[in-house]
Design a protein that fits this description.
The protein is built from two helices and 20 strands. The chain is mainly beta and about 400 residues long. The protein has a 20-stranded antiparallel beta barrel. The longest helix has 7 residues. It is globular.
Length: about 400
């Protein structure tokens, strides 16, 4: 799709809030993309029954003539006044229980039934790059049924099937469960089984404890290549590899506006072990956390390709209903192998929010082993309609 058409499609509504905008970079990328897709979003108020959003993406390559532009999300969402039903139509990323996320053109619905039963399903055509019309026999469909347990728990089972030219491309069966045991303890687990290529695709289990100022979590995960987490930055592109990982996270409220987080784990990759260690700090610059300063140091990678990284991020509310966000990451590989001594990644974003209208633009720049340099841009313009 040409950029001119994409820009016109962007002039539809996007969720917006009357409160100051909270910019964030979210996970919406494929494993083939070394940079990932950045998504700017804003919280919608609970009273809004109808909303829509459109996100346009463009990229610049160091090779002459290589420019990309596309509409990545253009979706209409609606829900009932009592909150028991909701749905969406258009192009969006569908997520459901333990199943992997799927980027589709289609529809998705969720209904709350009597006896604490939840039912949800989606169906559509998978979104693939550089593919035109004539994909009659390409489709994906999934459904999930869950039973709510108490006030903060549920258990569900989901199934997904994807066809490519009429042939099975992927089949998955997923089970997920989570519960709050009491005011301090939570447990959760999920597992996905690949039916097309029999074997586990992902298994995750965690248990956490909360005290007044400290939260402790133990976790263990196994993730195959098909379930890699979407990439939001250079850190996630390099750090998320098919592996088995186990460790713990401690979050300490060191001060009313300061959180200190330590994450220590061991990763098993290709018959070897490597540490995955991170230390983060987040300082809220106001009571609501609209403005915040974040820093992180990380040691990660595989046994044969480890790296050390540093990250800094600043989000600040400006005058005139504007909000700005900027991030910088630097990665130093243990073995450069002619790929560069330091790999940088940077993001700058600006958002505007006034009543029902919302607009945002962002620019992402990076250099990595795959690209000498890469520049990506994202634009979002929208409006939300509330219903009495």
């Amino acid at each position: 799709m040409k950029l001119t058409a994409a820009a016109l499609l962007a002039l539809v509504a996007a969720p917006a809030a009357a409160d100051p905008l909270r910019l964030r970079a979210d996970a919406l990328a494929t494993t083939q993309s070394p940079v990932g897709l950045l998504v700017l979003d804003a919280d919608a108020t609970p009273a809004e029954l109808l909303s829509a959003e459109a996100i346009v993406w463009t990229a610049a390559s160091p090779l002459p003539g290589e420019r990309e532009g596309d509409v990545l999300v253009i979706a209409l969402r609606a829900r009932t006044a009592d909150g028991r039903g909701r749905g969406q139509l258009g192009r969006f990323v569908a997520t459901m229980g333990a199943l992997r996320p799927v980027h589709i053109d289609g529809g998705m619905g969720h209904a709350r039934l009597p006896h604490r039963i939840d039912v949800e399903a989606y169906a559509g055509i998978p979104v693939l790059p550089d593919v035109g019309l004539g994909r009659t026999w390409d489709w994906v469909a999934a459904a999930r049924i869950a039973r709510r347990i108490g006030d903060y728990g549920s258990i569900g089972i989901a199934a997904m099937e994807q066809r490519d030219h009429g042939q099975i491309a992927s089949e998955e069966l997923g089970v997920d469960a989570g519960a709050q045991l009491d005011k301090r303890h939570d447990v959760a687990a999920k597992a996905a089984y690949d039916l097309a290529n029999p074997g586990l695709a992902e298994v995750t289990a965690s248990a956490s404890r909360r005290d007044r100022r400290v939260r402790t979590e133990l976790y263990a995960t196994y993730r195959a290549a098909s379930h890699l987490l979407p990439a939001t930055s250079l850190f996630t592109v390099l750090g998320d590899v098919p592996s088995v990982r186990g460790g713990g996270v401690v979050t300490w409220r060191a001060a009313p506006r300061l959180d200190v987080i330590g994450d220590a784990a061991v990763r098993h990759v290709d018959d070897g072990y490597a540490p995955a260690i991170a230390a983060r700090g987040r300082l809220r610059l106001d009571d609501r956390g609209t403005s915040a300063l974040t820093g992180e140091l990380r040691r990660d990678g595989s046994p044969d390709d480890a790296w050390t990284g540093a990250r800094a991020a600043l989000r600040i509310a400006l005058a005139g209903e504007l909000s700005a966000s900027t991030e910088l990451e630097l990665v130093v590989p243990d073995h450069p192998r002619g790929r560069g001594v330091v790999w940088p990644w940077a993001l700058a974003a600006l958002g505007w929010d006034r009543g029902a209208w919302h607009a945002a633009v962002a620019v992402e720049a990076s250099a990595s082993p795959e690209d000498r340099y890469r520049l990506d841009a994202l634009a979002q313009l929208g409006r939300t309609w509330g219903m009495p």
